[in-house]
Predict the 3D structure of the following.
Amino acid sequence: MAQLEILTQYQDILEEVNVSLKGYNENLKNELFEIEGDESYVNAYRRGETIYDQVDGNINNLNEILEQENEVI
């Protein structure tokens, strides 16, 4: 029974990650990353790093969930 609860928790987290990644994909699809208005190069770089870090974090979470699911199964 505990294993089922763990799998359910992982499924919920997996769904959150999936929704988040779809959101990033929709926002970034077919768009060039450009400096906005009077934004400095440094701020634009930081903004790009933040986007990359968020996507990278979601991918890492996804891989961790898949590893845990395999262990439980």
In short: Helices lie at 2-28, 41-72. The radius of gyration is 17 Å. The chain has a mean pLDDT of 78.
